[in-house]
Amino acid sequence: MTIKVGITHHAENKYDKAIQLDLHIFRLRRAPHSRTPIKNYLLKIYPDNHFINWLQDSVGNYLIRVVFPKKLKTK
């Protein structure tokens, strides 16, 4: 018997003045040695002016390192 699961995660922060985002580390993927297949994986990060580096920790888990280079403007 196969079970299919869909997971969506949305996080949003609003600020009343310009801010500087620091380095963020995300752990949003299963370990590569897991036997559970992933059919689709999509990651969207806003604002668009960022750099992403995919890394693996000492036991093989995927990490996403995100750097935002400029201050964010208020809306």
Structure commentary:
With about 80 residues, this protein is mostly beta strands. It has a domain at about 20-30 and about 40-75. The protein contains no helices and 3 strands. A 3-stranded antiparallel sheet has the order 1-3-2, with no helix packed on it. A hairpin with a 5-residue loop joins strand 2 (about 50-55) and strand 3.
Q: Major sheet, described briefly?
A: 3 strands, antiparallel
Shape by Cα distribution: extended
For the biggest β-sheet, the strand order reads: 1-3-2
SS strand fraction = 15-25%
Order of helices and strands: EEE
Q: How many distinct helices?
A: 0
End-to-end distance, in Å? 49 Å
**Average pLDDT figure:** 82
> Which class of secondary structure composition applies to the elements?
mainly beta
- The parts where pLDDT drops under 50 for at least 5 residues are none
What proportion of the residues is helical, as a percent range? under 10%
> How many runs of DSSP E, i.e. beta strands?
3
Q: What's the alpha carbon Rg, rounded to whole Å? A: 16 Å
Per-chain topology:
Elements: E1 24-26, E2 51-56, E3 62-67
Antiparallel strand pairs: 1-3, 2-3
Summarize the structure.
The chain has 75 residues and is mainly beta.
Question: What are its keywords?
Answer:
75 residues, 20% strand, 0% helix, three-stranded antiparallel beta sheet, mainly beta, Papain-like_cys_pep_sf, Bac_transglu_N
